[in-house]
Every structure is written in structure tokens, then in C-alpha cells.
Write a structure and sequence with these properties.
The structure is a single chain. The protein is α/β, with parallel strands linked by helices. The protein folds into 2 domains: 2-37, no CATH class; 63-248, Vaccinia Virus protein VP39 (Rossmann fold, 3-Layer(aba) Sandwich), CATH 3.40.50.150. The protein is built from 8 helices and 12 strands. Strands 8-7-6-9-10-12-11 form a 7-stranded mixed sheet, with helices on both faces. Strand 11 (230-238) and strand 12 form a beta hairpin. It starts with a helix and ends with a strand.
Length: 250
């Protein structure tokens, strides 16, 4: 049954006892699903996309990246896991760009724990919360979306991290100061546009992790930051996406 649903295009399939649920693309008709299942009595309902409609799954699920575990907020999480409410904001750990950022963050923190982190375009707050879970004392999460800030604040609360996470509306040009680690998982166009403001937020000998970059334009984004004195120290790629780890030359 599972294989036949996949053959006709199922994006996600789950079964529980005699019940089965499948997430199907719009191109698959209800009649096709009925033929595969061999039934005429079934329920059809619209799907809800996660990660700002970039990831389609039947329900939130656990994600493991390095030392990090990200789990749905169902009250059953083991100590040390990051719990996230089910919201439309970006940042569940399922999208390759988030996973790449989390991998880079874990490696940076293992080498040396930053004194603070700036998370630009925080979405769900997952990157800032991951940094705090890994031992970074404080994080500032900024976003231009009020709903994202609400969700990030709630996620900080349910993880017992509200006293270490500050949130603020705006982009990197709306704040002052510098951080030893800056994270920005947005899109290639905005990354190039905000490069001068973003680089000003990187402290002396600080690190910058930027993601949300299609691999086809990776070099264009890197060039914008190299011109401003950033040096690439690593690149991570997955499923057509790239994340750049850069180091301040000052």
C-alpha cells in the first residue's frame, strides 16, 4: 500500500493500525487515491505547509542535527531537546538550509563557545535556541515579521530560555553593536542586499554563517561578503542549497 501511494506521487505517508494518511500533490485526483487504497470511504482535507510552505509533511516530527534534537511541542521531549510549537514560521530543522546552519553552529560552538549570538531573520527562533542549548550565554533574535517574533518568544518560553533570548523587530541595520557569531538563514537576494549592514554586526575575529543560498548563486553571495572583508572558511551543501561559514578579517 505504501509503495503504491509513493508510486502515484505521495509526498508523505503515515499509518496507524488500520488507518492510513497520505499527503498528495494537487495533480493526483481523489479517484486515483481511492483506486490505490481499494476503498470508496475516505476523508479529503487541505494540507498545511510547514517552514513557510517550503516543507510538506503530515505532522511535525523529530529532527537530529549533530548534538541537537528538535522535537514537536507535545510535552514528551527528553531533557536537552529543543521543543517547537507547530507554526507557519520558517525553521523546523527539516529544510536543508536550517539543517546546514545547525551543523555549522554546532561545529563553531565545539571549537569555541561565543559570548553571544545574533540571529537575523529568526523565524521560529530555532537557530538562536540551538545556540543557547549548546552553551552560548545570550542570543538576540531579530525579524521583520511580528508573527515570527511571537513564535520565537513562545518557543524560548517553553524551552526555559526566555531569560537568555532577546527579540527585536527589524533587520541588521536597525540595531547597533557587534557579535562574535552572527547567523542569517534568509535568501540569496536579501543576503547580498544586507551584506554591508550584516558585516557591521560581526565583531573582531567573529564568525558569520549565512544560508538560504541556492548552490547556483553561492559564488555571487560569497563575493559580496569577501569585498567587505569576510573570508570563507567553509561551505556546506545539501539538496541544491548552500551555507557559507565566513570569518572576519579584522
Amino acid at each position: 500500500m505504501f509503495d503504491r501511494l509513493v508510486e502515484i506521487g505521495a509526498i508523505d505517508v503515515e499509518s496507524s493500525g488500520a488507518a492510513i494518511a497520505a499527503l498528495m500533490p494537487d495533480s493526483v485526483t481523489p479517484e486515483q487515491v481511492a483506486d490505490v487504497l481499494g476503498v470508496r470511504d475516505f476523508t479529503l482535507s487541505p494540507a498545511i505547509g510547514r517552514d513557510a510552505d517550503s516543507v510538506w509533511i503530515l505532522k511535525p516530527r523529530e529532527v537530529r542535527v549533530g548534538r541537537l534534537r528538535i522535537v514537536p511541542d507535545d510535552g514528551k521531549a527528553e531533557p536537552g531537546a529543543i521543543r517547537l510549537i507547530d507554526a507557519m514560521t520558517f525553521g523546523t530543522g527539516l529544510h536543508p538550509t536550517t539543517a546546514l546552519c545547525l551543523e555549522a553552529l554546532d561545529e563553531i560552538v565545539q571549537a569555541r563557545v561565543p559570548d553571544a549570538v545574533l540571529d537575523v531573520g529568526t523565524g521560529s527562533g530555532v537557530l538562536a535556541l540551538a545556540a543557547l542549548m549548546l552553551g552560548v550565554p545570550h542570543a538576540l533574535a531579530i525579524d521583520v515579521d511580528d508573527e515570527a517574533l511571537r513564535v520565537a518568544t513562545e518557543n524560548a518560553r517553553i524551552n526555559g530560555l526566555a531569560d537568555r533570548l532577546q527579540s527585536m523587530r527589524g533587520g541588521p541595520d536597525a540595531i547597533t553593536g557587534s557579535w562574535s557569531l552572527v547567523l542569517a538563514n534568509v535568501l540569496a537576494g536579501p543576503l547580498i542586499e544586507m551584506a554591508p549592514a550584516l558585516v557591521r554586526r560581526v565583531g573582531r575575529r567573529g564568525n558569520l554563517v549565512i544560508s538560504g543560498i541556492p548552490s547556483s548563486v553561492e559564488h555571487d553571495v560569497e563575493r559580496a561578503y569577501r569585498r567587505l572583508g569576510m573570508r570563507r572558511v567553509a561551505v556546506k551543501s545539501r539538496s541544491g542549497w548552500s551555507a557559507l561559514v565566513m570569518h572576519a578579517s579584522w
